[in-house]
């Protein structure tokens, strides 16, 4: 496993949001220079940050990139729901 390579990808998203657009346009091409395992590339492409966290990737980084990759709507509840396997819900609207 190449946790440091995955974390580098995520960190670089935060450093330069243009990288997120390049990644979203062609994930396989974007990730090709990084030494990633197949399951890591798939998790990044699928925005499966829970799998990456389960593999040892920093949850601080996963939380940082969630709104960049999925949009800010529902943050933090959408992120927390994803990370807990869908076991929480947002509080009822006032």
Please tell me about this protein's structure.
The protein is mostly helical. It has one domain. Helix content is 63%, strand content 0%. It is globular, with a radius of gyration of 13 Å.
Features of the shown structure:
94 residues, mainly alpha
Summarize the structure.
Helix content is 63%, strand content 0%.
Biggest sheet character = none
Specify the structural class: mainly alpha
Count of folded domains: 1
Question: For the terminal residues, how far apart are their CA atoms?
Answer: 45 Å
Describe the secondary-structure layout.
Layout lengths: L2 H13 L2 H8 L1 H5 L6 H8 L3 H6 L4 H12 L6 H7 L11
Helix pairs in contact: 1-6
